[in-house]
Amino acid sequence: MTVALAAPYASIDAVLAGLQGCGYHADRRLAAAVFLALRLQRPLLLEGEPGVGKTELAKALAAALGRPLLRLQCYDGLELRDALYEWNYAAQLLHLRAAEGASPDAQTMEHEVYQERYLIRRPLLQALQAPPPGAVLLVDEVDRADEPFEAFLLEYLGEYQVSIPELGTVRAAVAPVTVLTSNRTRELNDAVKRRCLYHWLDYPERERELAIVRAQVPEASDALSAQIAAFVGRLREQPHASAFQRAPGVAESVEWARALVALDTLTLDPEVVSDTAGVLFKQRDDVAALTPDLARELLAPQDA
To answer: GO molecular function: any one (predicted)?
Structure first.
């Protein structure tokens, strides 16, 4: 039987404060989604562009709740033994060899080798068996896994339980806080979406991005942080955004701020922007598209 613990936060404002205390600056809509996921004990599916803070939310939530973070990084070909469990075959074989002289019957031998002590637990099973107050499970980039894995997830997402043929059904002692992330490299199955609360995580508005940069890179001056937030914000806006394959995410803004501090940069200029374009962009064509002339245009006062 799954134990329902009291909701850790009494309001959306409390969620906002809790996440901010761990260095994550959420907007109110995201905080509302987190609050409802906690109150209703439902998985939360976050979709959005790479680098907007989906994974970081799970990390901050685990820290805010004081729960261990269990991360399942998805990829094409992800198998059950990587996500849920596998048997320690070497230990089972040693047990069988040690028992050869005793000549137990086949049923007894099967019972002995399929005991929990021979079970190697992976993130999903660890999350279900975590002691109070439970764990935060991050199923990261679920869109990279294949459809059979999605089908397997349905039992976990809907009932916080899984079936192990040799042991039976394993139910959560405490409902884990579950966060799934997707970069939308492919569309997820509707059955997965129906079992989750959903939130699209967009690029932050300028003031929130500025707060994130200041929190993550306190060594940067206020003036430089403001320039970074304004410059990246303009990069994402039309007509400039159409010049790039992918706009920089918040993760790139923070990394750029760290790089600029390492270069002892006091203020942005076209030369330093051009020199550090490889921090903001990860595609050759995008780096080339950020020309000094474009940098100069983006750095100019908006009312000019």
So the answer is: ATP hydrolysis activity
